[in-house]
């Protein structure tokens, strides 16, 4: 069976080559056909892998190394992409899927452009399949087959993490099609309003799952790692943040190209860069150049393959860009204070923010090459990335009403007064009961500012349109996304400066106080699951009027020889009471004392709800009927 | 009586927090920027390992003895190397580059955009504003 899958993957490679060749020659029909054939072949190849995992066929090396008969069925399936080779197979499925979707959905009046886009996509598919088959083949047999597998990384046996990689890949690889569209537009010298109209839904189709994928990963880190936080500026997290930031810049810049025909070169550059950053992320995660909590499948040879691919693909796209960008036409003239200027500012901030993340991520590597070991972590990003992004958030509600070409600046002072009032309000509240530091007050004000601003802009547009139901979906999308950003900011600020953290050491029957809660340890018992055993603590937390039971566990997976933390979280609506069980220690002759990391995290759900709203907003904008077809 | 008992239990139970809340807050901030030397990419504030607990205690002792934040940082970086600080030093060319580049890029980029705009600037009165009909 797995040999059939291997053969199908080779077939997919051949079809992709034909797709690339016919596409670049401008044959829309043939290229589209082969894109779909390649996708079908790759789906079959992936299915044989899923089948091998479902049946725990340990004669397949990948299954033997990453699965186990005792593993729950759904995690056997998810194990298919919970390892390097399988996840590269998934990468190929998604990439070829985007090619097939493009062949099916692209219906402009420019068949040659479409053919070229499919051709470039074919080259990208071909490269990823070459990498899969030559450097990370999942189709290898093991002879003799072992009787039992070596298990899957227990950290990955989790519902959020089972769907986290597919989501992330829809985003990363989705940008490959945006890259293809940009390259085709540059080849044809037609990155214009019609091009932007065609490409915009695809940019959103990558951005939405990428947002949700990052949120899922962050939520997983929150409840699984037991560190109480939601973002650690870990290099692997940064690797996913960079394409997201560039994707966000692209989403705004492409609007200018669609509506005005301006920024054509810049938009196509961002479209190329979004995928380059996705590849860079893959390289950083897979090559082992980074130390990270979740760098997996580390292998220098694969790293050089990926780096080579990144340099060749990115380099040729940038060369194409350099040759063609000067020939692209611009739109009507605009002043710095205009909608164009505002969106240019948005793009400047987002790209500088990306550069900051890149610098902070790569700097330790560069320093290490020079013989120094340094760390760049949260304090660095809080003092660089955060204030730079804050500028964009501050400006957003003010500039979103600006007109194309030239803005009416007469109401600017009202906006300044409004924001100053908000900060003052939060600062005064800080002197009072809440005790908020000034910086946190500014942060909270920014979040509220964004939400009010999104509502205000909706109101303004509703007035000018007459009534709300006429509002285009993409305006709803923008409102939701900007309000979601506001919620996110509020959640992030509160989580950073308003959380309480304590390490407790308790023996059975003892109590401790944290942020108004009295936490009592009832007992700690040993329990057993299908492929793990654990210490499970039973705690009762009380607060006037509330009582909660918390059962954090420390699990041990013998097959992987690895402990994991199963945190217990009690949600009160306004905060999470979060408990992670540490080690038990027995003093000579005395009872065992257990350590607990206890956090009270106020409104942390705002962070996730905010990102979900951003994704939902993107989805609404993507499904706007007027998002496709010809320019009006 | 109950209150006294509760506070006694609290003293026992929580990991030796400092009595002065301001000092404790400073200590916790520092713990978030000092890297656990036995773990991967974790600050000592989060780590459950023994060495992280020792390092936390060290931070608290130094703060209680009146050390400044920088003195604590210096003590750790002398002992374990600069690697131990998540807030890298801003001294020297490297430090300036790391800390300054984001802001240089931002200001430089803005200046570049404005310069190109003013070079291209035609008559501002000739530009007719177009209201954004949808996004």
From TrEMBL, chain B:
Belongs to the CcmH/CycL/Ccl2/NrfF family. Keywords: Cytochrome c-type biogenesis, Heme, Iron, Membrane, Metal-binding, Signal, Transmembrane, Transmembrane helix. It holds the Pfam family CcmH. Residues 4-124 form the CcmH/CycL/Ccl2/NrfF N-terminal domain. It comes from Henriciella pelagia. InterPro entries: C-type_cytochrome_biogenesis, CcmH/CycL/Ccl2/NrfF_N, CcmH/CycL/NrfF/Ccl2_sf. Possible subunit of a heme lyase. The chain crosses the membrane at residues 96-116. This is Cytochrome c-type biogenesis protein. It comes from the Bacteria.
């Amino acid at each position: 069976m797995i040999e059939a899958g291997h053969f199908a993957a080779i077939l997919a490679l051949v079809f992709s080559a034909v797709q690339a060749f016919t596409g670049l020659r401008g044959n829309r029909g043939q290229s589209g056909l082969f894109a779909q054939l390649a996708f079908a072949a790759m789906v079959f190849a992936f299915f044989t892998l899923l089948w091998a995992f479902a049946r725990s066929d340990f004669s397949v090396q990948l299954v033997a190394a990453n699965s186990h008969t005792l593993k729950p069925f759904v995690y056997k399936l998810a194990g298919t992409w919970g390892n390097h080779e399988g996840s590269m197979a998934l990468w190929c499925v998604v990439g070829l899927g985007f090619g097939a979707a493009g062949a099916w959905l692209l219906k402009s009046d420019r068949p040659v452009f479409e053919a070229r886009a499919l051709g470039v996509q074919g080259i990208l598919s071909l490269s990823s399949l070459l990498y899969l088959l030559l450097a990370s083949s999942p189709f290898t047999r093991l002879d003799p087959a072992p009787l039992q597998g070596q298990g899957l990384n227990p950290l990955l046996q989790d519902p959020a993490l089972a769907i986290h990689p597919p989501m992330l890949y829809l985003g990363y690889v989705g940008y490959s099609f945006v890259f293809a569209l940009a390259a085709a537009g540059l080849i044809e010298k037609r990155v214009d309003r019609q091009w932007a109209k065609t490409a915009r839904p695809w940019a959103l189709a990558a951005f939405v799952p990428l947002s949700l994928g990052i949120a899922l990963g962050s939520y997983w880190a929150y409840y699984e790692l037991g560190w109480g936080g939601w973002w650690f500026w870990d290099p692997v997290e940064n690797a996913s943040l960079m394409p997201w930031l560039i994707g966000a810049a692209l989403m705004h810049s492409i609007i200018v190209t669609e509506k005005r025909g301006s920024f054509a070169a810049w938009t196509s550059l961002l479209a190329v860069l979004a995928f380059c950053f996705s590849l860079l992320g893959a390289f950083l995660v897979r090559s082992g150049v980074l130390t990270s909590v979740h760098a997996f499948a580390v292998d220098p040879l694969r790293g050089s393959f990926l780096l080579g691919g990144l340099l060749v693909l990115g380099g040729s796209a940038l060369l194409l860009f350099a040759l063609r960008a000067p020939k692209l036409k611009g739109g009507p003239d605009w002043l710095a204070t205009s909608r164009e200027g505002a969106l240019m500012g948005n793009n400047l901030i987002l790209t500088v923010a990306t550069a900051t993340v890149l610098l902070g991520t790569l700097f330790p590597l560069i320093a290490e090459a020079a013989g120094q070991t340094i760390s760049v972590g949260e304090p660095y990003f809080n003092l660089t990335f955060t204030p730079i992004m804050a500028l964009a958030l501050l400006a957003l509600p003010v500039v979103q009403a600006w007109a194309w070409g030239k803005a009416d600046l007469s109401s600017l002072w009202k906006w300044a007064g409004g924001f100053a009032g908000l900060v003052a309000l939060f600062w005064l509240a800080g002197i009072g009961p809440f005790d908020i530091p000034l910086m946190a007050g500014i942060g909270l004000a920014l979040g509220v500012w964004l939400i009010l601003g999104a509502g205000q802009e909706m109101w303004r547009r509703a007035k000018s349109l007459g009534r709300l139901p006429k509002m285009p979906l993409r305006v709803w999308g923008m409102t939701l996304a900007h309000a979601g950003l506001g919620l996110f900011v509020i959640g992030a600020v509160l989580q950073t400066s308003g959380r309480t953290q304590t390490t407790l050491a308790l023996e059975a029957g003892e109590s401790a106080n944290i942020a108004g809660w009295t936490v009592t340890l009832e007992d700690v018992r040993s329990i057993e699951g299908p492929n793990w055993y654990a210490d499970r603590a039973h705690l009762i937390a009380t607060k006037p009027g509330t009582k909660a039971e918390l059962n954090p566990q420390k699990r041990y997976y013998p097959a992987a020889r690895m402990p994991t933390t199963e945190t217990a979280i009690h949600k009160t609506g306004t905060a999470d009471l979060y408990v992670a069980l540490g080690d038990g220690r027995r003093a000579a002759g005395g009872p065992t004392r257990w350590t607990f990391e206890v956090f009270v995290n106020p409104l942390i759900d705002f962070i996730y709800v905010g990102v979900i709203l951003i994704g939902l907003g993107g989805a609404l904008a993507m499904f706007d009927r007027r998002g496709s077809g010809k320019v009006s | 009586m109950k209150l006294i008992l509760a506070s006694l239990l609290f003293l026992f139970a929580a990991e030796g927090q400092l009595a002065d809340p301001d000092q404790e807050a400073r200590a916790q901030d520092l713990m978030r920027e000092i890297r656990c030397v036995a773990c991967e990419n974790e600050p000592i504030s989060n780590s459950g390992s023994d060495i992280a607990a020792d390092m936390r205690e060290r931070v608290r002792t130094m703060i209680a003895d009146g050390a400044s934040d920088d003195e604590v940082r210096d003590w750790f970086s002398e002992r374990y190397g600069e690697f131990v600080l998540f807030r890298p030093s801003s001294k020297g060319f490297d430090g300036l580059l790391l800390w300054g580049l984001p802001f240089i890029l931002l200001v430089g980029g803005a200046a570049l955009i404005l310069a190109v705009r003013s070079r291209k600037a035609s008559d501002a009165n000739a530009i007719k504003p177009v209201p954004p009909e949808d996004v």
